[in-house]
Amino acid sequence: MREKYHCLSSKGGFYDEPGPAEMKLSSSVSGAVRTFTYFMASGSHYMLKDVEYISLYGDEPSAIEQAYAIFINVLEMDENGNVTNMSHAEKRATDYIRSYCDPSFTVQPPYEDWEVALY
């Protein structure tokens, strides 16, 4: 069984801090997800210029969920936890949104099963 460390938070409650056998996301992965999220949620992702997708957040959340699944599934990191393919992961995810909003757009190459898996 993994050991947990119970820590007092600044708000007075307790939280579990990862024990020695647990891993946290690297700052590179965390930064990649945060950056992708910011530009997607703000409606200003440069790969989606001229695509009206921001309403999907309220109207079609499953489309956003799928885009994030693709982004995370495609994201790769090296042995030090540094993201090595941010642009490629963004491209695959934003191509999904583009194809969702514009049925005439064809994703190339087509998605492989592992890219679109919802875990």
Description:
Residues 24-119 form the DUF7677 domain. Pfam families: DUF7677. This is DUF7677 domain-containing protein. The chain has 119 residues and is mainly alpha-helical. It is 45% helix and 7% strand. It contains five helices and two strands; from the N terminus they run E-E-H-H-H-H-H. It has helices at 27-41, 56-59, 61-74, 86-101, 113-116, and strands at 5-8, 14-17. Strands 1-2 form a two-stranded antiparallel ribbon. A hairpin with a 5-residue loop joins strand 1 (5-8) and strand 2 (14-17). Helix 3 (61-74) runs antiparallel to helix 4 (86-101). The longest helix has 16 residues, at 86-101.
Topology summary:
Elements: E1 5-8, E2 14-17, H1 27-41, H2 56-59, H3 61-74, H4 86-101, H5 113-116
Antiparallel strand pairs: 1-2
Helix pairs in contact: 3-4
Using brief descriptors, characterize the structure shown.
5 helices; globular
Q: Summary?
A:
This protein has 119 residues and is mainly alpha-helical. The protein is built from 5 helices and 2 strands. It has a two-stranded antiparallel sheet with strand order 1-2.
Strand content: 5-15%
Please tell me the total number of domains.
Answer: 1
Distance between the termini: 24 Å
| Series of secondary-structure elements, N-terminal to C-terminal | EEHHHHH
Mean pLDDT: 90
Class from helix and strand fractions: mainly alpha
Helix content: 40-55%
Radius of gyration: 17 Å
Described by strand count, sense and barrel closure, the largest sheet is:
2 strands, antiparallel
Unreliable spans:
none
**Overall spatial form:** globular
Beta-strand segment tally: 2
Compute the number of helices: 5
Across the major sheet, the strand order is 1-2
